[in-house]
Amino acid sequence: MEQKLTIYNTLTRRKEEFVPLNPPYAGMYVCGPTVYGDAHLGHARPAITFDLLFRYLKHIGYKVRYVRNITDVGHLENDADEGEDKIAKKARLEQLEPMEVVQFYLNRYHKAMESLNVLPPSIEPHASGHIIEQIEYIKKILDHGYAYVSEGSVYFDVAKYNKDHHYGKLSGRNIDELLATTRELDGQSEKHNSFDFALWKKAAPEHIMRWPSPWSDGFPGWHLECSTMSTKYLGETFDIHGGGMDLLFPHHECEIAQSVAAQGHETVHYWMHNNMITINGQKMGKSLGNFITLDQFFTGNHPLLTQAYAPMTIRFFILQAQYRSTLDFSNEALQAAEKAWQRLSEGWNNLSRIVPAAETTVDVKELRAKCYEAMNDDLNTPIVISHLFDGVRAINTVLAGHATISEADLCELKETFSTFMFDILGLRLDAAEAGGAALEPFEKAVDLLLEVRREAKSRKDWATSDLIRDRLSAIGFEIKDTKEGTEWKIK
């Protein structure tokens, strides 16, 4: 059955049916990290959000070229084109080459993404590897009259662009009003106006990362990198551009302006933004110093954490909220996610314990269709998860002997769980969570011990029976004797 996905387009401020420019191909570009420190929970949300979209687009039949860039030059300490390059500063403080810093943290980022079961993108370009293309892009903007050279740097002329087009259409900002109230004093800046942004910055003598250009030895502006690399790999028009809500202004607003100035038209059909993860209502991020790295979550080594959290708990926590809603961190919320994920995992594992009957007396017929309906409604993962829990309740009802399910419906239920839990939501049953086909020997070993225990009980060998139960309990298993037999799960 053909699925019709609707997504919220930040530019038009409404949900729209996704219709690719060149079906069955779909192109998506997502702003990746600036690699000067360990990935934190704030990095995990866009990675998981657009991994979900990548997985779903492929699942419903599209061939997807997913480009996620790596910013390794040009991202200064603030958005006003001031301060030191973040990576160069880290390199200076640690007495390393800048690309040593990039490679070290990029390796750690990839490891964290792998732990979260985030698929690698189709292409992962680096800004520093596309300097020539960025210089050529700047030349186009200059030729069209929307940029100017000032003391060896090149700036985008926001006021001139806004007269011909609309700077602020993505973020909804009234730039005319802002321009009128924040104009720089003459002679106080290289810029004509405080809102102008750098396309190329002349490097100070001490600046490590620098390249020759027609204007100076310098480096590209942060906003320019994404316009250049998305065009190179996806063409002058492409389907989806994504990123965190914090990038909406100025970064993505500037991308639109650059694209129109260089090419005469916009490049992106659907702008998608995930909302923020907050801590006590405040955005979590490096710049605010209130972030917790993913490695700290996995180890529990942070003052704000009361325990360690497995990567799939983190992924499940993020998927429990629709990507456009704010998600507030707390230990209580993560612990609730951990228990919910464990219940869902148990539901999956219990499917293999059901013996099919001649007929079905439990309601599972519409589960797959309901899950697709939720996914097609702007990737509504919390509703998908709620439907899967409806399935878990049905599974438990059958196991308790209060209902039956036919072999055909049992197979359909297994396929639905496998499709949505693993293929689309990207959840994974790791060894510590005791599930999945890879753990079949583990399950068989536990079942074998319980079989020995049953035999001991039949011989009235209570000492052996109690010993097996107590030892399994001591190492983390919960053993429950029922009329139908013995059930077990990990505590």
Distance between the termini: 40 Å
**If you average the pLDDT, what whole number results?**
90
Radius of gyration: 27 Å
Number of helices: 16
Going by helix content, strand content and strand pairing, the class is: alpha/beta
What's the number of structural domains? 3
Briefly note the CATH topology name of the largest domain. Rossmann fold
Query: Class of the largest domain, according to the CATH hierarchy?
Result: Alpha Beta
Instruction: State the shape.
Output: elongated
Task: Work out the helicity level.
Answer: 40-55%
Q: CATH homologous superfamily of the largest domain - what is it? A: HUPs
Label the CATH architecture of the largest domain. Answer: 3-Layer(aba) Sandwich
Query: How is the biggest beta sheet arranged?
Result: 4 strands, parallel
Strand order of the biggest β-sheet: 4-3-9-10
Concise account of the structure shown:
The relative contact order is 0.11.
Keywords:
Rossmann fold, alpha/beta, four-stranded parallel sheet, Isoleucyl-tRNA Synthetase, Domain 1, 491 residues, four-stranded antiparallel sheet
Q: Would you kindly provide a written description of the structure presented here, covering whatever features stand out?
A:
The chain has 491 residues and is of the alpha/beta class. The chain has three domains: 21-274, Rossmann fold (3-Layer(aba) Sandwich); 282-435, Isoleucyl-tRNA Synthetase, Domain 1; 438-490, no CATH class. 44% of the residues lie in helices and 14% in strands. It has helices at 41-59, 86-94, 98-115, 131-143, 158-164, 175-181, 222-234, 248-263, 294-299, 311-319, 331-351, 367-376, 381-399, 407-424, 440-458, 462-474, and strands spanning 6-9, 14-17, 25-30, 63-68, 147-150, 153-156, 197-202, 218-220, 238-244, 268-274, 277-279, 282-283, 327-329, 477-482, 485-490. α12 (367-376) runs antiparallel to α13. The longest helix is centred in the last third of the chain and has 21 residues, at 331-351.
